[in-house]
Amino acid sequence: MVKVVFTPNIQRHVAMPEAEAPGRTVRDVLETVFADNPQARGYVLDDQSGLRKHMTIFVDGRMIRDRARLTDAVGESSTIYVFQALSGG
Amino acid sequence: MSDTLLVSTRKGLFTVARKAKQWAITAVEFLGDNVTLALSDRRDGRRYAALDHGHFGVKLHRSTANGWEEIAAPTYPPKPDGYEEHDMWGRPLNWSTARVWALEAGGGDEPGVIWCGTLPGGLFRSSDRGQSWDMIRSLWDHPKRKQWMGGGADLPGIHSICVDPRNSRRVWIAVSTGGIWFTEDGGASWTLRGEGMRAEYAPPEQTHDPIAQDVHCLAQCPTAPQRMWVQHHNGIFISSDEGKTFTEITGVEPSAFGFPVVVHPREPDTAWFVPEIKDEKRIPREGKLVVTRTRDGGKTFDVLTKGLPQSHAYDVVYRHALALDGGGERLAFGSTTGGLWVSEDQGDSWACVTHTLPPVYAVRFA
């Protein structure tokens, strides 16, 4: 199972507790998590299901490359960190 | 006559109420968050607030008996595979709500209907009080929509929505920049209006093209809907035929540049504006904050100053930040520098409620 950790800053708006979900890509894992927490989806993904402009995702310490489709691979014991980017001010 | 104001600011939603003839802040909600616009629906008393969380996107909240609840935000449809569209800067245009720039209640005969205008140009309609939204595809897919450009923001946006009080299926919207669009079938089809407006900033071939017009604000007289007023990027325009044609009002002092316009509910020739020097100098002339009022359809203007700062005032009043109550007597406006003023005599005199608010984006009577 892949672990998903959300930035504490988002918790003020919508509860997004640490979660675990199966999957081979960032997309797989996040869609499973958001299926249980649909309100949270729009806080991380935009209308086209891409990563919001000023959000960023790290997998095991490395920033993902495919912000539009989230196809970056994850391992069974990976940890996905969902953060806001400093570029958003 | 309304005793309550909703003031949307960069750092929260402020309720300002009249008690013992004094206006004062009585509630602060969403403190610290960017509230870009609010709506109080007179049909059922519900309130709506649009928030822009920056990193986390645009959200909508609706009032409940005990507070607020988050409801659906307008969402753009999936972009077709392989379809490419670019903004005026050549960047890929993201089909995603970048800002809620207009929120209006539908007609009295369609309870629960809310209209929402957004950046980058999508118009949405809800028939269930914002629980869900339908994009008006006939407008978004209109071939001329791609001629819309950024004006008040990098991206084009719909900032004004007027629902005909005689027939709720007739709706006007205004775009910055993209002119005035009209539907008479509830949004199934649209026509471009606004002949007669003039864009002095455009190349000669486009100066009088209705789609090139940067309408800053469109206002319609509720009891005489044929009368429409436009505060435009380079002037003030008036229409007597539901926005089909406009006439420019010239010679307006201290300036014809500004963002908001409001029109009296029963006197179509009476309208108010808040002038700034000019597009490239968006501050009050000579540091004197004034409101202008015409009672004769723009032939003459009163320059209203009583109670307003007349020295070193650099307040800018955005297009949604001037409000007139349903009775036509009370006005209020808020500024980018955190000032809020109220008038109870059609602008003849003003009282400062506070000058320490966060930047004010919108003011509305509840």
Could you characterize the architecture of this molecule?
By secondary structure, chain A is of the alpha+beta class. Chain A has a single domain (2-88), classed as Roll (Ubiquitin-like (UB roll)), CATH 3.10.20. Chain A has helices spanning 26-36, 38-44, and strands at residues 2-6, 19-21, 55-59, 62-63, 79-84. A five-stranded mixed β-sheet of chain A has the order 2-1-5-3-4, covered by helices on one side. In chain A, a hairpin with a 2-residue loop joins β3 (55-59) and β4 (62-63). The longest helix of chain A is centred in the middle third of the chain and has 11 residues, at 26-36. By secondary structure, chain B is an all-beta fold. Chain B is 1% helix and 39% strand. Chain B is built from one helix and 28 strands. In chain B, the strands form seven sheets. In chain B, strands 3-2-1-28 form a four-stranded antiparallel β-sheet, with no helix packed on it. In chain B, β18 and β19 form a beta hairpin. The longest helix of chain B is centred in the middle third of the chain and has 4 residues, at 137-140. The mean pLDDT of chain B is 96. The chains are: A alpha+beta (89), B mainly beta (366). The A-B interface holds A 9-10, 13-14, 39, 42-44, 46-50, 52-55, 84-85, 88-89 and B 53-57, 59, 70, 73, 75-79, 94-97.
The total of helices of chain B stands at 1
| Oligomer description | heterodimer
How many separate domains make up the residues of chain A?
Answer: 1
The share of residues in helices of chain A is 10-25%
Please give the order of strands in the largest beta sheet of chain A: 2-1-5-3-4
Number of DSSP strands of chain A? 5
CATH top level of chain A is Alpha Beta
Looking at CATH, the homologous superfamily of chain A is Beta-grasp domain
Largest contact between chains? A-B, 21 and 17 residues
